[in-house]
Amino acid sequence: MIKISIDLGLCQGYGNCVSADPEIFDLNDSGFAFLHVEEVPDDRLSTLRDAAAVCPVEAIRVEPDADGGQR
Q1: Phi, psi (5° rounding) for residue 45?
Q2: Class of residue 33 by CB neighbours under 10 A (exposed 0-12, middle 13-18, buried 19+)
Q3: Residue 26 has what DSSP assignment?
Q4: Distance CA 36, CA 9 (A)
Q5: pLDDT tens, N- to C-terminus, the chain (71 residues)
Q6: In Å, how far are 29, 63, 64 from 19, measured between CA atoms?
Q7: Are 21 and 15 in contact, with CB atoms under 8 Å apart?
Q8: Which ranges in 1-71 belong to alpha helices (H)?
Q9: Complete domains list, the chain, with CATH
């Protein structure tokens, strides 16, 4: 499993992550990103990387799992 997180101190609510993967990311009532889930199967790595790459403030972190999974 891949762990993902959003640094709410950096998030500006652009919503690019939501466009990249609306099953994982959404915007709350205040306009900031949140996660529907915090762990995602390894086969979603490409989509998560895309979401992180389109975040203009680099607020999304894609973390390896405890077994040394991909980043």
Answers
A1: -55, -45
A2: buried
A3: E
A4: 19
A5: 999 999 999 999 999 999 999 999 999 999 999 999 989 999 999 999 999 999 999 999 998 676 655 44
A6: 17, 21, 23
A7: no
A8: 16-20, 45-53
A9: 2-63 (3.30.70.20)
